[in-house]
Amino acid sequence: MRARVGFRTQLFERSGASGIRPGSALRRDHDVATRALSRQEKRTLAALGLPTFVLALSITVVSTYLPVVAREFTSSSTVIGLLIGGEGMMALFVPVLVGVWSDRLRTHVFGGRLPFLLGAMPVVAAALIAMGIVGSILGLAVSVGIFFAAYFIAYEPYRALYPDLLDDEIAARGQATQAIWRGAGTALALGAGGLLLSVARILPFVVAAVMSLACTALFLFFALRRGVRDNESRGPAVGEVLRSLFGLLRERRQLRALLVANSLWELSLAALKTFVVLYITRGLGYSVSESSLIIGGTALIILIAAGASGRLGDRYGKRRVMMIALIVYAVGLLVPFVFTQPYLIAPALPLIAFGGGVVMSLPYALLIPMMPPEGHGALTGLYSMSRGVGVVLGPVLGGVAIDALKPQLSSTQGYSAMWLVCAAAVALSIPLLRLTGGDD
């Protein structure tokens, strides 16, 4: 077995100056023919997608429809933003710690990643049910806090299975496949959540809880039967990893740029998810069930874009595809801020959906080639920490903008201010993406 070297040394050896493995440092994605996935790779991707589906479904129900429930207890958009921003607070420290732990943990039956998913998903389900029952803003806050903590305990080790099991040359397609599962969960939550909520407040949360447990059980069955196991390399100690990670942040401009850009992408997505239903229902005057149909239709375009982005990224370069998508995304996000007429907003929805689908798919694929074998969980945790910054700021800045601009944007009760926050975040990320290196 290869002798273990320092975590940072391995990262530099593997990534080189441009963030690529040495064997491919001079090779761009679009110079490499996209090979067909093997049957085993297809089975692996199918099994790996199940947790993504239910985690996306659950967190979409929380981030999109909990604000509607919270409106029963508070009229402040800032308070609602702080409530949903709790996801980001958890993401600032839970992912790195859990990711490093999963790099080191070994169990005889489940390996190092699966125990976290197995232990956390019942807590996710219980917290979801509690959100549909509690009768105060404090009860919602406690339930949301427990949910987000369990969500990250489950998600970070699970997500590290992707670099554990997939070659770099199919990383973009692997992330696109995951994004298809994520898009399917998101689309189902957006399309059905409002309809269920219109029947009874508890229904979307109970359905999400039941599906979370069922799909997790199915994934564990496939994982044990088909050999979906984690990396056999044992990572370094927590202290060494944390010192190495923050040292890399100081020394590697490409990594810093990617993580800051990721924070901005997540800021935009978080603000959008938190206030889009309130924008449609209170700002434009549609019912909750009608908003579900509108958002559900848009989510289908996101699903298509997510699937296409992986093949485009592997063929033409992930950064190049991201750059085009971000420009389209930023322009599309400005349209609902400037206009309120449905016939002007409708043509912008495909642009927004396309950009959102690509942003959901490719950023993690840009990070995967920078990962050493022993640090998949750790760097995944650092990536999620950057995500947490955006998830904290997105709902809060969106809420503050809505409250501050409500007099000027009275036709939508201020909710169109959310689109300005989203567009600004995406626009600021474009020069940062250029700093991450060449086109792969």
Describe this structure in words.
By secondary structure, the chain is mostly helical. The chain is built from 19 helices and no strands. It has a single domain, classed as MFS general substrate transporter like domains (Growth Hormone, Chain: A, Up-down Bundle), CATH 1.20.1250.20.
User: N-to-C terminal Cα separation, in Å?
Assistant: 30 Å
Helix content: over 70%
- Name the poorly predicted regions: 1-33
Q: How large is the count of helical segments?
A: 19
Per CATH, the superfamily is MFS general substrate transporter like domains
CATH architecture: Up-down Bundle
CATH class: Mainly Alpha
Number of strands: 0
Q: Under CATH, the topology is which?
A: Growth Hormone, Chain: A
What about the largest sheet? none
Rg over CA atoms, rounded to whole Å, is: 21 Å
Identify the quaternary structure here: single chain
Q: Structural class of the secondary elements?
A: mainly alpha
Beta content = under 5%
Q: How confident overall, as mean pLDDT?
A: 76
